[in-house]
Amino acid sequence: MTIVGAGMVGHTTAHWLAVDQVADLVLVDIIEKMPSGKALDLLQATPVRGIDVKVVGSNGYEETAASDVVVIIAGIARKPGMTREQLIDTNASIVKRVVEQVTRHSPDATLIVVTNPLDAMTYLTYKVSGFARHRVIGESGALDSTRFRAFISMEVGVSVEDVHAMVIGAHTDKDMVPLPRFAHVGGVPLSHFVSPERIEAIVARTRRGGAEITELVGTSAFFAPGAAIAQMVMAIMRDKKRLIPCSVYLEGEYGEKDVCIGVPVVLGSGGVERVIELPLNDQEQAAFKASVGAVREMLTALKL
Ligand code: APR
Protein backbone atom coordinates (compact mmCIF):
# COMPACT_ATOMS: atom_id res chain seq x y z
CA MET A 1 0.00 0.00 0.00
CA THR A 2 1.03 3.61 -0.50
CA ILE A 3 1.02 6.81 1.54
CA VAL A 4 1.36 10.00 -0.53
CA GLY A 5 2.55 12.87 1.66
CA ALA A 6 5.25 11.66 4.04
CA GLY A 7 4.99 14.61 6.42
CA MET A 8 3.85 14.47 10.03
CA VAL A 9 0.57 12.64 9.48
CA GLY A 10 2.09 10.48 6.74
CA HIS A 11 4.98 9.12 8.75
CA THR A 12 2.86 8.69 11.87
CA THR A 13 0.35 6.66 9.84
CA ALA A 14 3.22 4.54 8.50
CA HIS A 15 4.39 3.97 12.06
CA TRP A 16 1.00 2.78 13.31
CA LEU A 17 0.55 0.55 10.24
CA ALA A 18 4.02 -0.96 10.59
CA VAL A 19 3.45 -1.72 14.29
CA ASP A 20 0.33 -3.67 13.35
CA GLN A 21 2.10 -5.28 10.34
CA VAL A 22 -0.82 -4.37 8.13
CA ALA A 23 1.03 -4.20 4.79
CA ASP A 24 4.25 -3.38 2.99
CA LEU A 25 4.50 0.38 2.68
CA VAL A 26 5.59 2.88 0.03
CA LEU A 27 6.02 6.49 1.20
CA VAL A 28 5.86 9.18 -1.50
CA ASP A 29 6.60 12.88 -1.15
CA ILE A 30 7.78 15.72 -3.37
CA ILE A 31 10.56 16.69 -0.97
CA GLU A 32 13.69 15.15 -2.45
CA LYS A 33 15.19 12.19 -0.55
CA MET A 34 12.99 12.76 2.53
CA PRO A 35 10.59 9.80 2.00
CA SER A 36 13.54 7.43 1.45
CA GLY A 37 15.11 8.65 4.70
CA LYS A 38 11.91 8.23 6.71
CA ALA A 39 11.29 4.79 5.17
CA LEU A 40 14.82 3.72 6.07
CA ASP A 41 14.41 4.94 9.64
CA LEU A 42 11.16 2.97 10.03
CA LEU A 43 12.72 -0.09 8.38
CA GLN A 44 15.62 0.04 10.84
CA ALA A 45 13.10 -0.17 13.68
CA THR A 46 11.59 -3.43 12.37
CA PRO A 47 14.22 -5.85 13.77
CA VAL A 48 13.82 -4.40 17.28
CA ARG A 49 10.06 -4.89 17.14
CA GLY A 50 10.03 -8.08 15.05
CA ILE A 51 8.01 -6.36 12.34
CA ASP A 52 7.91 -8.23 9.03
CA VAL A 53 7.00 -5.44 6.63
CA LYS A 54 8.98 -3.73 3.91
CA VAL A 55 9.09 0.06 3.82
CA VAL A 56 10.41 2.09 0.89
CA GLY A 57 10.35 5.79 0.08
CA SER A 58 10.22 7.53 -3.27
CA ASN A 59 9.77 10.85 -5.04
CA GLY A 60 7.93 9.09 -7.86
CA TYR A 61 5.08 6.65 -8.38
CA GLU A 62 6.80 3.65 -10.05
CA GLU A 63 7.19 1.84 -6.72
CA THR A 64 3.54 2.43 -5.84
CA ALA A 65 2.25 0.41 -8.81
CA ALA A 66 -0.69 -1.91 -8.09
CA SER A 67 -1.20 -0.69 -4.53
CA ASP A 68 -4.43 -2.01 -3.03
CA VAL A 69 -4.86 1.01 -0.74
CA VAL A 70 -3.50 4.52 -1.29
CA VAL A 71 -3.70 7.13 1.46
CA ILE A 72 -3.57 10.73 0.19
CA ILE A 73 -2.15 13.12 2.81
CA ALA A 74 -0.19 15.42 0.49
CA GLY A 75 -0.82 19.09 1.07
CA ILE A 76 -0.23 21.90 3.48
CA ALA A 77 -1.40 21.70 7.08
CA ARG A 78 -3.09 24.47 9.04
CA LYS A 79 -1.23 26.77 11.38
CA PRO A 80 -2.63 28.20 14.64
CA GLY A 81 -5.69 30.38 14.01
CA MET A 82 -6.39 28.87 10.58
CA THR A 83 -9.44 26.83 9.67
CA ARG A 84 -9.20 23.70 7.55
CA GLU A 85 -11.35 25.46 4.93
CA GLN A 86 -8.65 28.08 4.29
CA LEU A 87 -6.41 25.43 2.74
CA ILE A 88 -8.73 24.73 -0.19
CA ASP A 89 -7.00 26.33 -3.21
CA THR A 90 -3.49 25.10 -2.52
CA ASN A 91 -4.53 21.64 -1.47
CA ALA A 92 -7.01 21.15 -4.32
CA SER A 93 -4.29 21.57 -6.94
CA ILE A 94 -1.95 19.24 -5.01
CA VAL A 95 -4.61 16.56 -4.53
CA LYS A 96 -5.68 16.73 -8.18
CA ARG A 97 -2.13 16.07 -9.39
CA VAL A 98 -1.63 13.28 -6.86
CA VAL A 99 -4.89 11.54 -7.78
CA GLU A 100 -3.98 11.59 -11.47
CA GLN A 101 -0.67 9.87 -10.72
CA VAL A 102 -2.09 7.41 -8.22
CA THR A 103 -4.95 6.25 -10.43
CA ARG A 104 -2.59 5.76 -13.39
CA HIS A 105 -0.32 3.47 -11.37
CA SER A 106 -2.91 1.76 -9.17
CA PRO A 107 -6.20 1.63 -11.10
CA ASP A 108 -7.73 -0.91 -8.70
CA ALA A 109 -6.83 0.83 -5.44
CA THR A 110 -9.12 2.03 -2.69
CA LEU A 111 -8.31 5.67 -1.96
CA ILE A 112 -8.34 7.12 1.55
CA VAL A 113 -8.32 10.92 1.54
CA VAL A 114 -6.89 12.86 4.48
CA THR A 115 -5.88 16.24 3.04
CA ASN A 116 -8.00 19.16 4.30
CA PRO A 117 -10.54 20.59 3.78
CA LEU A 118 -11.48 16.95 3.99
CA ASP A 119 -14.98 16.67 2.54
CA ALA A 120 -14.08 18.90 -0.42
CA MET A 121 -10.86 16.95 -1.09
CA THR A 122 -12.78 13.65 -0.92
CA TYR A 123 -15.32 15.00 -3.43
CA LEU A 124 -12.48 16.21 -5.68
CA THR A 125 -10.79 12.81 -5.47
CA TYR A 126 -14.05 11.03 -6.32
CA LYS A 127 -14.57 13.25 -9.38
CA VAL A 128 -10.96 13.26 -10.63
CA SER A 129 -10.37 9.52 -10.10
CA GLY A 130 -13.58 8.39 -11.77
CA PHE A 131 -13.54 5.50 -9.27
CA ALA A 132 -16.74 3.96 -7.93
CA ARG A 133 -17.87 5.71 -4.78
CA HIS A 134 -17.18 2.74 -2.51
CA ARG A 135 -13.45 3.11 -3.30
CA VAL A 136 -13.05 6.79 -2.32
CA ILE A 137 -13.22 7.35 1.44
CA GLY A 138 -12.39 10.44 3.49
CA GLU A 139 -10.97 10.28 6.99
CA SER A 140 -13.15 12.52 9.07
CA GLY A 141 -15.42 10.78 11.54
CA ALA A 142 -12.77 8.17 12.28
CA LEU A 143 -10.62 10.96 13.72
CA ASP A 144 -13.33 13.12 15.27
CA SER A 145 -14.91 10.04 16.88
CA THR A 146 -11.69 8.88 18.57
CA ARG A 147 -11.29 12.40 20.00
CA PHE A 148 -14.92 12.29 21.22
CA ARG A 149 -14.32 8.86 22.79
CA ALA A 150 -11.12 10.00 24.52
CA PHE A 151 -12.90 12.99 26.11
CA ILE A 152 -15.87 10.84 27.20
CA SER A 153 -13.51 8.32 28.78
CA MET A 154 -11.72 11.11 30.70
CA GLU A 155 -15.06 12.43 31.97
CA VAL A 156 -16.64 9.10 32.93
CA GLY A 157 -13.49 7.45 34.26
CA VAL A 158 -14.06 4.22 32.33
CA SER A 159 -11.60 2.65 29.88
CA VAL A 160 -11.59 3.98 26.34
CA GLU A 161 -12.13 0.36 25.29
CA ASP A 162 -15.70 0.54 26.58
CA VAL A 163 -16.54 3.98 25.23
CA HIS A 164 -18.34 4.05 21.89
CA ALA A 165 -19.35 7.30 20.26
CA MET A 166 -19.44 8.79 16.81
CA VAL A 167 -19.21 12.07 14.99
CA ILE A 168 -20.83 12.53 11.58
CA GLY A 169 -21.14 15.50 9.22
CA ALA A 170 -18.47 17.82 7.90
CA HIS A 171 -14.88 17.61 9.15
CA THR A 172 -14.87 21.23 10.33
CA ASP A 173 -14.89 22.63 13.86
CA LYS A 174 -18.17 24.43 13.35
CA ASP A 175 -20.14 21.90 11.34
CA MET A 176 -19.17 18.46 12.60
CA VAL A 177 -22.08 16.64 14.25
CA PRO A 178 -21.11 14.72 17.39
CA LEU A 179 -23.92 12.34 18.38
CA PRO A 180 -24.00 12.01 22.20
CA ARG A 181 -27.46 10.39 22.06
CA PHE A 182 -25.87 7.39 20.31
CA ALA A 183 -22.86 7.27 22.65
CA HIS A 184 -22.58 4.55 25.25
CA VAL A 185 -20.18 3.20 27.85
CA GLY A 186 -20.21 -0.58 27.85
CA GLY A 187 -23.78 -0.53 26.57
CA VAL A 188 -24.97 2.04 29.15
CA PRO A 189 -26.14 5.33 27.59
CA LEU A 190 -23.77 8.27 28.12
CA SER A 191 -26.59 10.27 29.72
CA HIS A 192 -26.57 7.80 32.64
CA PHE A 193 -23.08 9.04 33.62
CA VAL A 194 -22.88 12.65 32.50
CA SER A 195 -25.13 15.71 32.91
CA PRO A 196 -26.44 17.49 29.79
CA GLU A 197 -24.16 20.45 30.61
CA ARG A 198 -21.06 18.28 30.76
CA ILE A 199 -22.09 16.48 27.55
CA GLU A 200 -22.26 19.92 25.88
CA ALA A 201 -18.78 20.71 27.16
CA ILE A 202 -17.41 17.41 25.80
CA VAL A 203 -19.07 18.07 22.44
CA ALA A 204 -17.54 21.57 22.34
CA ARG A 205 -14.08 20.21 23.14
CA THR A 206 -14.48 17.53 20.45
CA ARG A 207 -15.28 20.20 17.85
CA ARG A 208 -12.05 21.97 18.72
CA GLY A 209 -10.12 18.72 19.17
CA GLY A 210 -7.77 19.51 16.30
CA ALA A 211 -7.59 23.26 16.92
CA GLU A 212 -6.65 22.73 20.57
CA ILE A 213 -3.63 20.68 19.50
CA THR A 214 -2.66 23.13 16.75
CA GLU A 215 -2.59 25.92 19.34
CA LEU A 216 -0.46 23.85 21.70
CA VAL A 217 1.97 22.37 19.16
CA GLY A 218 2.09 25.08 16.51
CA THR A 219 1.08 22.76 13.67
CA SER A 220 -1.73 20.31 13.15
CA ALA A 221 -2.13 17.00 14.93
CA PHE A 222 -0.60 13.72 13.80
CA PHE A 223 -0.85 10.89 16.35
CA ALA A 224 -4.65 10.66 16.39
CA PRO A 225 -5.04 11.35 12.65
CA GLY A 226 -2.46 8.64 11.91
CA ALA A 227 -4.12 6.14 14.23
CA ALA A 228 -7.54 6.81 12.70
CA ILE A 229 -6.19 6.33 9.17
CA ALA A 230 -4.51 3.09 10.23
CA GLN A 231 -7.82 1.89 11.67
CA MET A 232 -9.49 2.50 8.30
CA VAL A 233 -6.68 0.82 6.34
CA MET A 234 -6.76 -2.18 8.66
CA ALA A 235 -10.54 -2.52 8.28
CA ILE A 236 -10.12 -2.65 4.50
CA MET A 237 -6.97 -4.79 4.25
CA ARG A 238 -8.22 -7.35 6.77
CA ASP A 239 -11.85 -7.19 5.62
CA LYS A 240 -12.93 -6.45 9.18
CA LYS A 241 -16.35 -4.92 8.39
CA ARG A 242 -15.77 -2.15 10.95
CA LEU A 243 -18.49 0.44 11.46
CA ILE A 244 -16.66 3.77 11.27
CA PRO A 245 -17.95 7.21 10.30
CA CYS A 246 -16.17 8.35 7.12
CA SER A 247 -16.72 10.93 4.41
CA VAL A 248 -18.34 9.26 1.39
CA TYR A 249 -20.18 10.34 -1.74
CA LEU A 250 -23.90 10.21 -1.03
CA GLU A 251 -26.40 8.99 -3.60
CA GLY A 252 -29.65 9.68 -1.79
CA GLU A 253 -28.78 8.49 1.70
CA TYR A 254 -29.91 10.97 4.35
CA GLY A 255 -31.86 12.66 1.53
CA GLU A 256 -28.62 14.01 -0.01
CA LYS A 257 -26.94 13.59 -3.37
CA ASP A 258 -23.71 14.70 -5.06
CA VAL A 259 -21.85 15.61 -1.87
CA CYS A 260 -19.18 13.91 0.27
CA ILE A 261 -19.82 14.07 4.00
CA GLY A 262 -19.27 11.97 7.11
CA VAL A 263 -21.77 9.18 7.76
CA PRO A 264 -21.38 5.79 9.46
CA VAL A 265 -20.21 3.16 6.98
CA VAL A 266 -19.11 -0.46 7.09
CA LEU A 267 -15.50 -0.77 5.88
CA GLY A 268 -14.23 -4.06 4.49
CA SER A 269 -12.27 -5.41 1.54
CA GLY A 270 -14.85 -3.84 -0.77
CA GLY A 271 -14.12 -0.39 0.68
CA VAL A 272 -17.40 1.20 1.74
CA GLU A 273 -19.61 -1.88 1.82
CA ARG A 274 -22.67 -0.22 3.38
CA VAL A 275 -23.82 3.25 4.34
CA ILE A 276 -25.74 3.14 7.63
CA GLU A 277 -28.70 5.50 7.82
CA LEU A 278 -29.20 6.50 11.46
CA PRO A 279 -32.62 7.31 12.91
CA LEU A 280 -31.71 10.93 13.65
CA ASN A 281 -34.09 13.06 15.74
CA ASP A 282 -35.20 16.50 14.54
CA GLN A 283 -32.31 18.34 16.18
CA GLU A 284 -29.67 15.93 14.84
CA GLN A 285 -31.30 15.98 11.41
CA ALA A 286 -31.17 19.80 11.37
CA ALA A 287 -27.51 19.81 12.41
CA PHE A 288 -26.67 17.31 9.67
CA LYS A 289 -28.55 19.36 7.05
CA ALA A 290 -26.66 22.49 8.08
CA SER A 291 -23.43 20.53 7.86
CA VAL A 292 -24.25 19.37 4.32
CA GLY A 293 -25.00 23.01 3.46
CA ALA A 294 -21.58 24.08 4.71
CA VAL A 295 -19.85 21.41 2.61
CA ARG A 296 -21.86 22.38 -0.48
CA GLU A 297 -20.76 25.97 0.02
CA MET A 298 -17.14 24.82 0.21
CA LEU A 299 -17.61 22.79 -3.00
CA THR A 300 -18.52 25.96 -4.89
CA ALA A 301 -14.91 27.09 -4.32
CA LEU A 302 -13.59 23.93 -6.02
CA LYS A 303 -12.44 24.29 -9.59
CA LEU A 304 -13.00 20.82 -10.99
N1 APR B 1 3.07 15.27 -3.85
C1 APR B 1 3.53 14.57 -2.78
N2 APR B 1 3.66 15.13 -1.55
C2 APR B 1 3.36 16.42 -1.43
C3 APR B 1 2.88 17.21 -2.50
C4 APR B 1 2.75 16.57 -3.76
N3 APR B 1 2.31 17.22 -4.84
N4 APR B 1 2.67 18.47 -2.05
C5 APR B 1 2.97 18.47 -0.73
N5 APR B 1 3.40 17.26 -0.36
C6 APR B 1 3.87 16.81 0.96
C7 APR B 1 4.75 17.84 1.64
O1 APR B 1 6.05 17.84 1.08
C8 APR B 1 4.73 17.35 3.07
O2 APR B 1 5.81 16.48 3.38
O3 APR B 1 2.80 16.65 1.88
C9 APR B 1 3.40 16.59 3.17
C10 APR B 1 2.46 17.20 4.19
O4 APR B 1 3.03 17.01 5.44
P1 APR B 1 3.02 18.11 6.60
O5 APR B 1 3.37 19.44 6.00
O6 APR B 1 3.83 17.58 7.72
O7 APR B 1 1.48 18.21 6.99
P2 APR B 1 0.62 17.17 7.87
O8 APR B 1 0.50 17.69 9.23
O9 APR B 1 1.12 15.79 7.65
O10 APR B 1 -0.80 17.37 7.16
C11 APR B 1 -1.02 16.99 5.82
O11 APR B 1 -3.26 16.24 6.25
O12 APR B 1 -4.45 16.45 8.21
C12 APR B 1 -4.23 16.98 6.95
O13 APR B 1 -4.72 19.34 7.23
C13 APR B 1 -3.72 18.39 7.02
O14 APR B 1 -4.02 18.82 4.69
C14 APR B 1 -3.06 18.53 5.69
C15 APR B 1 -2.49 17.12 5.47
What keyword list fits this structure?
alpha/beta; Rossmann fold; L-2-Hydroxyisocaproate Dehydrogenase, Chain A, domain 2; 2 domains; 42% helix; binds adenosine-5-diphosphoribose
How are the SSEs ordered, and which strands pair?
Elements lengths: L1 E3 L3 H12 L5 E4 L5 H16 L5 E4 L10 E4 L15 H18 L4 E4 L4 H12 L6 E3 L2 H16 L6 E2 L2 E3 L6 E3 L5 E2 L2 E2 L6 H12 L1 H9 L5 H15 L4 E10 L5 E12 L2 E5 L6 H18 L5
Parallel strand pairs: 1-2, 1-4, 2-3, 4-5, 5-6
Antiparallel strand pairs: 7-10, 8-9, 10-11, 12-13, 13-14
Helix pairs in contact: 1-2, 1-8, 3-4, 5-6, 5-8
Bound molecules: adenosine-5-diphosphoribose.
Explain what the structure shows:
- The protein has 304 residues and is α/β, with parallel strands linked by helices.
- The protein folds into two domains: 2-138, 3-Layer(aba) Sandwich (Rossmann fold); 141-300, Lactate dehydrogenase/glycoside hydrolase, family 4, C-terminal (L-2-Hydroxyisocaproate Dehydrogenase, Chain A, domain 2).
- The protein contains nine helices and 14 strands.
- The protein has helices at residues 8-19, 34-49, 88-105, 118-129, 141-156, 196-207, 209-217, 223-237, 282-299, and strands at residues 2-4, 25-28, 55-58, 69-72, 110-113, 136-138, 163-164, 167-169, 176-178, 184-185, 188-189, 242-251, 257-268, 271-275.
- It has a six-stranded parallel sheet, with helices on both faces. It has a three-stranded antiparallel sheet with strand order 7-10-11, with helices on one face. It has a three-stranded antiparallel sheet with strand order 12-13-14.
- Helix 1 (8-19) runs parallel beside helix 2 (34-49), helix 1 packs across helix 8 (223-237) and helix 5 (141-156) runs antiparallel to helix 6 (196-207).
- The longest helix has 18 residues, at 88-105.
- The structure holds adenosine-5-diphosphoribose.
- The site of adenosine-5-diphosphoribose has 28 residues, from helix 1 and helix 3.
